What we know:
alpha/beta; TIM Barrel; Immunoglobulin-like; 2 domains; 8-stranded parallel β-sheet; 11 helices
Amino acid sequence: MKREFRAPTPPMGWNSWNTFYDQIDEGLVRATADAMVEQGLRDAGYEYLIVDDCWALKERDTRGNLAPDPAKFPGGMAALADYVHARGLKLGLYACCGVRTCAGYPGSFEHEFEDAAQFARWGVDYLKYDNCYRPESIPSQALYRRMRMALDCSGREIALAACQWGTEDVHRWIRSTGAVSYRSTVDIQDSWASIERIALSQIENQCYAGPGCYNDMDMLVVGMNGRGVNPETCVGGCTPEEYRTHFALWAMLGAPLILGCDLRALDEETRALLTNPHLIAIDQDPACRSCQRISVYANPDAFVLAKPLWDGSCALGFFNFSDVAANVTLNFWELGLPAASGWGLSFVDCFSGEALGVKREFFAPTVPAHGGRVYRCAPARP
Length: 382
């Protein structure tokens, strides 16, 4: 059976886990689908609405199938999928390769083919597949290949998102499983320290990602502002500047953009950031190239990320992880553009949309503490 190419660019969507934890139900999911449309998120490219762990009953039904908790989802998953699809979105669901999920619900180990068939009957489009409680004698790569095969046999196109946490050198083998993304880190928290730690841990590994399979550095915490019921994620919140840097880093590094805040309560600043067309275009660039990291002289807490784009332009991200503002300097010869060439770079600010004109030899914006500045640039003569 011919199968279409599943993920030409990183997946975009929303996931229930960061904010809502186990407090999920049919009303929340439907209201979130409506909010994705009303807030312009669907039109900006966010297409998956993913229901994370705790949606099922604690035991399989009498036929051995997974069953949604009727107190949370009285209409059933097929009706929920219909509601989501009617709004031009796709439904994602959570499962686990072990005997139980991370929250203690039934896992898919030795039930892969029947579960995949069930997901297909319901109309599921995306499967987040976690890594808890698997037998230690079986490497996780074998179980991800098994579920990919089960999904391929289900008769429905379902994207497999491997939530593998970066163990077992996952970046070296995950593409061979057919997964469209792979979690490469521990769970994110709504704090600058967590964002910084995750980003720095993955810059050197980004070269393993590319068209069809992307490095998932976990869901975005932009807009959470310390709110939510998840005791692992909701730990205080970030400043608006830190959220802008977070979104810019994930876009520059080509990560899936999976939102985790309450979309029903977006303020205008957060909505504008999450729908920023310049940053989304960088994340969704068809070339899916990795970035060059360029160090900044005498400032170990600052760096530049340079990402070639499909149209011959490039994205430049200037980042300052220190606790004070700093000038972050890029000499253009680091990009292969020496002063003797007679060429410079035209700059467009990706946050404001402002055209800054042509710069020659170097560029040194002042970047706030924990801040980032991103520009789309193209070779130009002064």
